[in-house]
Design a protein that fits this description.
The protein has about 325 residues and is of the alpha/beta class. It has two domains: about 170 residues, Peroxisomal Thiolase, Chain A, domain 1, CATH 3.40.47; about 150 residues, Thiolase/Chalcone synthase (Peroxisomal Thiolase, Chain A, domain 1, 3-Layer(aba) Sandwich). About 30% of the residues lie in helices and about 25% in strands. Helix 4 links the parallel strand 4 and strand 5. The radius of gyration is 19 Å and the shape is globular.
Length: about 325
């Protein structure tokens, strides 16, 4: 009997219209285009500016596009998983809000919070519902409105992050295409270096926490950089080894778009040709859970059925991992 795998049968992405360039940021904090580009590789990022708009609205754009391009009715969707650290509200889940807005009334949904590794975690979870035969159509989204939790007086973080969302439709496949394997890791000791201090049950929101600007992203760059490169490389190598692959077998590496220096370091340590590394950080910055699906969306036209793809990411907390996919269709 052929093994059932969760194949990606469609991919879509969405970024807001408003562009926040490096020159724009130079009018907010002590920085300039050269300083930002040299340290991050980012030239601009997209920002949600419309009042009342939230992460779910970006997710809705992704889902509607996915449904249209795959000829799928909203009522056919069984499950939607949304990876995000910027939910519309603490509850209900942003996934459920997206499902309501697109009219997917036969499905259920939930959110996953694993920071920048969220899409990998959600993709792996979603694939299991397909592999076990529980569901036939699962949508996995990575979406974050980082502008809602970025301190635009802190030049160490505000230059990095942008808003965006991407997602994939998963369906059963018995021909060897789909999500093959994942190596996922976490280490709570990393929370000291990349976190949001207030707003949870440990440190609830008060006037004092707001005044102290504790509801924004905090990052200690050096330990995060070191852990990110090490974690992404180690899990990618472990993934290759246990699937009896070498770097030469990989058609595409899709690294989390955190920082161009991290992307280059991971590529160099894996010894993979730069032409095989997906990069769009210069246009969108770090969209957290959105970076991996946004890369797949932008490079979709270059993907071919049977391509071997490795996705790898690292996020706050710490969380990290790598996933191996056999691509299921020729990109349009």
């Amino acid at each position: 009997m052929q093994k059932t795998q969760a194949a990606i049968t469609g991919v879509s992405g969405y970024v807001p219209e408003t562009i926040l360039s490096n020159d724009d940021l130079s009018r907010l904090v002590d920085t300039n285009d050269e300083w930002i580009t040299t340290r991050t590789g980012i030239k601009e990022r997209r920002i949600v500016r419309e009042l009342g708009k939230a992460t779910s609205d970006m997710g809705v754009e992704v889902v509607r596009s996915l449904l249209a391009k795959t000829g799928t009715d909203p009522m056919e969707i069984d499950l939607l998983i949304c990876a995000t650290i910027t939910p519309d509200s603490p509850f209900p889940d942003t996934a459920n809000t997206i499902l309501h807005k697109v009219g997917a009334k036969n499905s259920f949904g939930f959110d996953i919070n694993a920071a920048c590794s969220g899409f990998l975690y959600a993709l792996t979870v979603g694939s299991k519902f397909i592999e076990t035969g529980t569901y036939r159509k699962v949508i996995v989204i990575g979406a974050d409105m980082m502008s809602s939790i970025v301190d635009y007086t802190d030049r160490t973080t505000c230059i990095i992050f942008g808003d965006g969302a991407g997602g994939v439709l998963l369906e059963p496949n018995i021909d060897g295409y789909g999500v093959v394997d994942s190596v996922l890791k976490s280490d709570g000791a990393g929370r000291d270096f990349l976190h949001m201090k207030a707003g949870g049950s440990q440190n609830p929101t008060t006037i004092e926490t707001v005044m102290a600007r504790e509801h924004f992203v905090f990052q200690d760059g050096k330990p995060v950089f070191k852990a990110a490169v090490t974690g992404m490389v180690q899990t990618a190598n472990e993934l290759l080894e246990r699937n009896h692959l070498t770097v030469a077998d990989i058609d595409w590496l899709v690294p989390h778009q955190a920082n161009m220096r991290i992307i280059n370091a991971v590529g160099d340590m894996l010894d993979i040709d730069k032409s095989k590394v997906m990069v769009n950080i210069h246009k969108y910055g770090n969209t957290t859970a959105g970076t991996l699906p946004l890369c797949l969306w932008e490079y979709e036209s270059q993907l071919r059925k049977g391509d071997s793809i490795v996705l790898t990411a690292f996020g706050g907390g710490f969380t990290w991992g790598s996933t191996y996919i056999k691509w299921a269709y020729d990109g349009q």
